[in-house]
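Dear colleagues,

I hope this message finds you well. In preparation for our joint manuscript, I am sending the alpha-D-xyloside xylohydrolase (Paenibacillus monticola) sequence together with its predicted structure, so that both groups work from identical material. I would be grateful if you could confirm receipt.
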Amino acid sequence: MKFTDGLWLVRDGITINGAVQNYVVEKTSEGLTAITQTTPITGRAATLNSTLLTVKFHSPLPGVVGIKIIHHEGVQERGPVFELTKGTGDHVRIEESELETVLISGGLRVVIRKGEHWAVDFYRGDERITGSGYKSMAYITDKDGNTFMREELDLGIGEFVYGLGERFTAFVKNGQVVDLWNKDGGTSSEQAYKNIPFYVTSKGYGVFVNHPELVSYEIGSEKVKKAQFSVAGESLEYFVIEGPTIKEVISKYTSLTGKPALPPAWTFGLWLTTSFTTDYDEATVNSFVDGMAERDLPLHVFHFDCFWMREYQWTDFQWDERVFPDPKGMLKRLKEKGLKICVWINSYIGQRSRLFEEGKQNGYLIKKANGDVYQTDLWQAGMGLVDFTNPAACEWYAGYLRDLVDMGVDSFKTDFGERIPTDVVYFDGSDPQKMHNYYTQLYNQVVFNVLEEKLGKNEAAVFARSATAGGQKFPVHWGGDCYADYESMAESLRGGLSLGLSGFGFWSHDIGGFENTAPAHVFKRWLAFGLLSSHSRLHGSSSYRVPWEYDDEAVDVTRFFTKLKCSLMPYLYDVAGQAHEQGWASMRAMVMEFPEDPTCEVLDRQYMLGDSLLVAPIFQENGEAKYYLPAGRWTHLLSGETTQGGSWRKEKYDFFSLPVFVRQNSLLARGSVDHKPDYDFAEGVKFGLYSLEDGATTTATVRDLTGAPELSVKAERKGNTLSITAEGSGKAFTFALNDLGVIASVQGAEQVDETTVQVQAGSKSVHFSIELK
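The corresponding structure tokens are as follows:
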């Protein structure tokens, strides 16, 4: 939201009361409180008819400092509020001198200047990373009496801003106006399903604005050297989070707002759906499932989209008996084929649903100010919305979900959650402006909790479209409605990378696009991208997404990349464990892994899948790939070709390949199974050691299906000697060299060929060495 008219003027009707002078700084039990004046005090008379801003500084975690700017403290703050970790503050140090008061938290130092000119500066050691200067903090009014709180933080030369949720606009947010307001806008607009008030910069710090309502950002757009954010009301709170790396910033941010849960391993397999408006019944479903099996296409999850329920009755949680007369038996038969089951739901209750009257009579639906149920014809005729601020409504809704889980459902696609009205009244008195974005958090939490309750820890996963800060705790999320073309494939990736830089660990997208039907070449290129993503789903709108609907080669491409992903599960599930433990995205923007490489700062058409695999999807019909390899040696995962990085490359690929490279100094674990994602990853695992430099050490962890580390392997090189230590499972594994020459001799293991070693089952602690020729 813009308040100024260029550099010198203020917009008509706007009054800005900006912080100009420090009056006093006081120590408190939580940290520091500063009182700043918005007009200079030249004498006693200047203290009259003036505006003061109270600025409170506190630190919930080391390296994280909260700043709350308040105009009038008597204003009642209504919920909802984000659930944040609240530390003890024991890690905070306060220092004071004649010129400044300093709060120190971990590697972050906040300096409040004394004297005539108000300034707050944020330091990492001796490096100033950002700051709030003269008049940046401000209380603002407009001609209609609306009030706003604003902050402007400095942007340095060449500093790039990322994140703010799943945004499909330019990956680098500099120059953009971003209003955080969840909307159902597809992937081809500036609107977003998942608006997250958190950004991270290439300088290695992040800023989280602690407001679930509309937060309006001007990222170098109103003032080109400022990242500005504002909210309506009388107070504004934000947190500055120091890294010093982007990965460490995100780790601290998710320590504050919540780590992603670990999805069960089966969710990483291939999902197939009925699609949205297609005609289907049990025979159709069986034709898809059996058709996949007949073509040797590994399939792991089958999803029933909206029309598993009867039209006009969404959501009523009842199978349409006209096409599914025996749902319990059908699900049993599908599960006997090794499938997990997902069904579409949402929190909108159509007037013809059996739930509508129940919800109306019991006060479970959101109401208007006059006490009527809020209703709309947008989506379902006469629909109401479940009021998740009412604990009884949550339990009512959860009860129907439990019945479906008992019937055999394993997961729910929690669609929608963005079209939430603000002219309503909530059961608990929540502020409807704040609830607009926050509603999805309550919705997904109820569903996720039911799955965890019924299926157990590490067995819960939703497939969610909307989110707010903290939504990462309830994975998985997908990118929403995209078109079936290369442009939407690329915009989907931009959105996923932005979401990953906003604290979300797991992300998916509709392979082949949702709207329309892709040409076969688009579908096949999207298959490679989709099956080298965190989660992989074939889904569409008005046409089926089974690969034989495209051409025979699409069947082969589906088989190839599905089996490749299954074989990579020992590595991918460790990447998932890192997402759960550290908050790092499985699909990582290049800048996240290579923060010192200026070229990586703007790359948005390639990504790192974990820390070892680089993936560059192909967005051209002619199969041409243009991508960048950072410095170091890289080995193509499929061809075994090794090349030197530090430059751009342009090549052509057939449909069975793409740029997918293993980073030097990687120890990549691959499984012995290629037809399913949930198996004993340590049994017969194959470790590939890639381009290990002299003096370097690398490690790999293989986890069990609960996510616990089962086998840890470390490799170290000194000259031509490799020393390998394995601790854990005691199961047999192989160890292969890539770009390291050939083996001269082996001690402590069995040499299979000139580049491969076999370790037999037995000891849980193994050490062997390899001498290179």
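For the figure legend, we might mention the following. The longest strand covers residues 52-61. The radius of gyration is 28 Å.

With kind regards,
E.M.
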